[in-house]
């Protein structure tokens, strides 16, 4: 199951993790964001133990979105060793996301 990242748990789960992370920024009102949910959940199961995968609702945790300059949703960032190493804006096929994440493993 994908993590739900909040202002309170983000640093511990993502920035201090020894695994790469894929963070999906979205919102309840965003159609393309909702369309990505099944892909994010599948990937969370497939990469369990190898990567941290989860979502940030930009309306609930605006501080995290602001930190990364998120202006459009969905935006997915890839983090390794606490730093952003890749970014994908817009809904894309699962293959695009798995290729980017695999490159970090």
Q: What does it look like?
A:
The chain is of the alpha/beta class and 105 residues long. It has one domain: 3-Layer(aba) Sandwich (Glutaredoxin). The chain is 35% helix and 26% strand. It has four helices and five strands; from the N terminus they run βαβαβαββα. It has helices spanning 10-15, 31-46, 62-67, 94-102, and strands at residues 3-4, 21-26, 52-57, 75-80, 83-89. It has a five-stranded mixed beta sheet. A hairpin with a 2-residue loop joins strand 4 and strand 5. The longest helix is centred in the middle third of the chain and has 16 residues, at 31-46. The relative contact order is 0.24. The model has no long low-confidence stretch (mean pLDDT 97).
